[in-house]
Amino acid sequence: MERKGPQKLAVLLCRFSDTNNNTEPPRQFFEDLFLNRNTGGLNDYWHDVSHGAINLDGSEIFGWQTLNISVADFIRTVPGRDGKVAYAVNAFGLNIGDYAAVVGIFNAVIGGGGSHGWAVLAQAGDLNLTFLAHETGHAFGLDHSYDRSGRVIIEDQTHPGEYYDRNDIMSAMNVDSGEDARFGRRGPILNAPNMERMGWLDPTRVWHRPSGKSGYFRVELVSLGHPEIPGYLVAKVGSLYVEFRTQDGWDDGIFMSCIEIRKMQNANSYLYLSNPSTFRTDWLPGSMFGPDDTKWEIMGGVRIFIDSFDKEHKKAHITIHYHVGHGVEEAPILPDWNVWKRPKHLNDVDLHPEWNKYIIELENTLLQSWEQTLQLNRVILILQQDLLMLKQQKFK
Ligand SMILES: [Zn+2]
Domain 5-141 falls in which CATH fold? Predict the structure, then answer.
């Protein structure tokens, strides 16, 4: 899913036969909104949040043109978002193959904006950067972001956690945005796993553990919104992405400067909760991500300590601690937490009751955290290594 260089948009400004009253913003407004640089518009947005990998140079604005149809007839007879934009494409006589995406802007309410493949549909009220960035993001291949709370934002229509990453543009409009004087809501930026999926995250700026051994590693992270500052932008810890976000620039509307931790599952990023009872997702100095002391001592694992923020220099300091548990030399390959199945041999052996209880507890909460998956995997590994020893081992 790599996308690089200029992404030419065709922006079609459409009126209807009965909304042809010339009260819309002039063409210059849309040139600044979509095409021109240094305007605070969408071209600046995508250039910045892709860390320079893409831009909207070469995009073209067409219209205003009055379509030969009334609003009511358009809503009644033209189905689908892509169908509606295709109607405009025909009216303008364009070849959609010439463009990365087509944005149809209509000066009336026509039953909801959104996107479908190459087509972005904006109705009256949709002209703001947050909406347009989200929908053009879809056209570029991005999918929705999630948190791991399991909350459902629209019953029967969205998946658990979908749209709950408030600091990622691919959860718009359920995001924390700033305000641009001309272009309305703006931000937030795109999170690190989504950036990497698009080929926009410079791999030389991603920290990895230098060796497979136990130990403490102190890592300085630069704010993801400030790639102009040298240093690591992301720490990869197993399958986790750790990033630092500061409340400025395109992120000036986020709730607070914070560390955030995500993982990628297929095309979607999942944001970890720092406090499951309040659904907070920010990790602040003094907090720690990882297993509690008992599990840590027995099973080992990874802990991430948030040490300090240097907001003036846009840097955060974290310490990553890898710890090997009893009898385990190396962290095993993590199972996919979506497809976990209890290994058959677990049912066939006579486990110490405390261990059995612990395994059941882990299984019951398996989908809730990556560390628990890691711990369960370690239990399995120990079982495979030495069942007899395990039976005599005391749970503590
Ligand atoms: Zn969407």
Answer: Collagenase (Catalytic Domain) (3.40.390)
